[in-house]
Design goal:
mainly alpha; 15 helices; globular; 3-stranded antiparallel β-sheet; 3% strand; 370 residues
């Protein structure tokens, strides 16, 4: 790789994610204390291996000019769709947490929807670049709608509403950055509101409806559907200013009251053990990360690069707001993990690949002159 390109490696962004990963490893160890020490260490080792593999994947992505991904965008799209179809096939896809969203590879389990996020962001960015200034009519939006509609439908069939929402959010965000006529944005919001009764009666599954009603008032069923969010809010509040400490024994974390505490509710663990101070540090770290992505999207050398970073920005923005929001009762529970902190190999690998893609665009923001 050219040294001139390496000089543009964004060190602040890289340090930011490394800091988040380290805090996540500490939180994972603390949240698995209900198991034996050996098992807690095993969780940390597996997450560390996923991070190391993510670094390797990041290095591979950085070494390839992102415009090459644009040249083969149709192939990338085909592979992304193929993975989402494969996971729905009995015998290939594995049911976990009520959704057929994983493929068992023997040593590890892969979640295709996580990797498809990156593929669809790349391909949608190229599609929008090719259709620049052609987003002003319903006819113009038909092809983009089909492009993202297919993977969203496949994810809903798993069913995985959380990841489907991630796709919808970064799609809308990328369309906004690409210059879509604002009337379509307001029209879409109005259409969603008007069609909500149809979604409620014919589209949403019983457990998805339950999550929405629980979000409105979790105390209607404190020992059932409302249990998770109530325990999470109690844990967050019990941390107060400085927290109970990583070695405290009388915590909701150690007493195993928190559900999925090393994945979906990792922020609750951090809040209980380190208090408002620790939670604020996490929020600030994520804020710096998001602001950095915004800055890098502005200095990309072309529309394709800008749209890629914008898609990744909106992907992270929704996941961060949704995950932290659901732990404190401000958002419905969707099963979305907290990037870089929650335990999960597919999630970690995808996050590192996404950052690698951002670094790729940033490092090539200036044309090389010979």
């Amino acid at each position: 790789m050219d040294r001139k390109i390496l000089k543009n490696f964004d060190i602040p962004l890289f340090i930011n994610i490394v800091a988040l990963v380290i805090m996540g490893l500490i939180a994972i160890y603390a949240s698995t204390q209900t198991f034996s020490t050996e098992q807690s260490i095993r969780f940390v080792i597996i997450q560390s291996v996923a991070f190391a593999l993510g670094l390797i994947a990041m290095g591979v992505i950085i070494s390839i000019d992102y415009n090459q991904f644009g040249i083969f965008w149709k192939l990338v799209y085909f592979i992304s769709i193929l993975m989402l179809v494969a996971v729905l096939i009995p015998g290939i896809g594995k049911v976990n947490k009520g959704a057929r969203g994983w493929i068992d590879l023997g040593i590890v389990e892969m979640q295709p929807a996580e990797f498809a996020k990156i593929g669809i962001i790349i391909t949608f960015a190229k599609l929008l670049e090719n259709r620049e200034d052609k987003l002003n009519t319903f006819k113009d939006l038909l092809v983009p709608a089909i492009h993202v509609g297919i993977p969203i439908i496949l994810i809903m069939l798993q069913p995985d509403l959380g990841n489907a929402l991630v796709f919808i959010v970064f799609t809308v965000g990328m369309l906004f950055v690409a210059g879509i006529n604002i009337k379509f944005v307001w029209g879409s919001i109005l259409t969603l509101l008007v069609s909500f009764p149809i979604l409620w009666n014919f589209i949403l599954l019983p457990h998805q409806k339950s999550r929405l009603t629980t979000f409105m008032n979790p105390y209607n069923d404190p020992l059932g559907d409302g249990y998770h969010v109530i325990q999470s809010m109690l844990a967050v509040g019990s941390g107060q200013i400085t927290g109970k400490g990583l070695n405290a024994e009388d915590t909701m974390t150690n007493l195993n009251f928190l559900p999925e505490q090393w994945t979906d509710f990792i922020f609750s663990v951090i809040s209980e053990l380190t208090g408002f101070v620790g939670a604020a540090i996490i929020v600030v770290a994520f804020a710096l990360f998001l602001f950095r992505l915004l800055h890098l999207s502005k200095i990309a050398k072309d529309q394709f690069g800008t749209l890629i970073i914008a898609g990744i920005f909106f992907m992270y923005l929704f996941q961060i707001v949704e995950n932290i929001g659901m732990t404190i009762g401000l958002m419905p529970i969707t099963g979305i993990t907290l990037p870089f902190l929650s335990y999960g190999g597919s999630s970690m690998l995808t996050n590192m690949m996404a950052v690698g893609l951002v670094l790729n665009v940033t490092m090539r923001r200036h044309k090389i002159k010979f």
